[in-house]
Amino acid sequence: MMAKQVEHDQLYIGIDGGGTKCRATIYSAIHGVLGTGLGGPANPLHGFERTLESIMVSTQLALQDAGLRVEQVHELYAGLGLAGVNLPSLYDKIMRWDHPFKQMFLTTDLHTACIGAHEGEDGAVIITGTGSCGFVLVDGKSANYGGHGFAQGDIGSGSWMGLEAVKAVLLDLDGLGPNTALSQVFLQHFNTNTAMGIAEQMAGQPSSSYAKLARYVLDAAKSGDTLALEIVKTGADYVSRLARKLLENNPPRLSMIGGLSEPLSQWLDPEVADQVELPKQPPEMGAIYFAMQSIQRQSEHLV
After folding, report:
1. Residue 132 forms part of a structural domain
2. 175 and 228: one domain?
3. 146 belongs to a structural domain
4. What CATH number should be reported for the domain holding residue 199?
5. Domain named ATPase BadF/BadG/BcrA/BcrD type: which ranges (predicted)?
6. Do 163 and 269 sit in the same domain of this protein?
7. Looking at residue 241, what is its pLDDT?
8. Is residue 179 part of a domain?
């Protein structure tokens, strides 16, 4: 029934792609949100073909959820916010993709997260999920900080916490570093009794695999484990410094999003934590706003 109602409506799809998952939301200019879908990792830096696959899986599931036909993908104006496309080579590669959408507008996941968090208005956002980074948009001017990727940056992120914890556990198990309760937790998690057993299973793993270990680090920190506390506090200190850097641009609002935004908030500097406001909309809606804004700019250029 919904499909008939919106058949001639202007339809949008907002796609938020990160290192762990890809979310899609289909939006009708008349009826609002129609459906959502969830796919796998969508950071082209860690797998270009996998990214395209995740985008299409999330799109097809969103179409199904919206009660739309598969071929109606050609009616969708797509806004894509993807991790990794801050690198020009990856941006160009995605833009050359023979996509199925009516039109596609591409930007970074940072940009769409910021647009969504402030419902299309100016502001700043910190993402603390699989990776970490900051973005600010004020009076048409933007700046981003961090977001250098796994494993050379992304301090305070899930992947960074997981990596730091694995390194610490391996040192502990070899008798070359301080003791940590994480060692027994990881031995159980990996179903092994040696440091090499952990190292072997994590060899060559992507950032998302390390990010899944972050919950153990946070739990151990809450329980008072000294080493886990050091990791969490170091990450939170970086995020606090990132927030202060963003606030130098005088944004009207600052939000934090991502899987670690809530658990990390209690470890932030109090003066920073006091300025963090809840996001108004998720990044997928930010991608939809971005598509709408891009179409508006196109129409203005034609006048």
Report:
1. no
2. yes
3. no
4. 3.30.420.40
5. 13-287
6. yes
7. 97
8. yes
Can you give the residue range of the structural domain that contains 203? 158-277
Verify that 201 and 219 share a domain, yes or no.
yes
Same domain, 189 and 221: yes
Q: Residue by residue, what is the 3-state secondary structure of the chain? A: CHHHHCCCCCEEEEEEECCCCEEEEEEECCCEEEEEEEECCCCHHHCHHHHHHHHHHHHHHHHHHHCCCHHHHHHEEEEEEECCCCCHHHHHHHHCCCCCCCEEEEEEHHHHHHHHHCCCCCEEEEEECCCEEEEEEECCEEEEEECCCCCCCCCCCHHHHHHHHHHHHHHHHCCCCCCCCHHHHHHHHCCCCCHHHHHHHHCCCCHHHHHCCHHHHHHHHHCCCHHHHHHHHHHHHHHHHHHHHHHCCCCCCEEEECCCHHHHHCCCCHHHHCCECCCCCCHHHHHHHHHHHHHHHHHHHHC
**What average pLDDT is seen over the chain?**
93
pLDDT in tens, 243-292: 999 999 999 999 999 899 999 999 999 999 999 999 999 999 999 999 99
How many structural domains does the chain have? 2
Residue 125 located in a structural domain: no
154 backbone dihedrals φ, ψ, rounded to 5°: 55, 40
Averaged pLDDT for residues 217-242: 97
pLDDT digits (tens, 9 = 90+) for 142-195: 999 998 888 888 999 999 999 999 999 999 999 999 999 999 999 999 999 999
Whether residue 236 is found in the same domain as residue 291: no
Compare 244 and 46 and report the one with higher pLDDT: 244
% of the chain surpassing 70 pLDDT: 97
Output the pTM of the full model. Answer: 0.83
> What would the mean pLDDT of 80-84 be, rounded to a whole number?
92
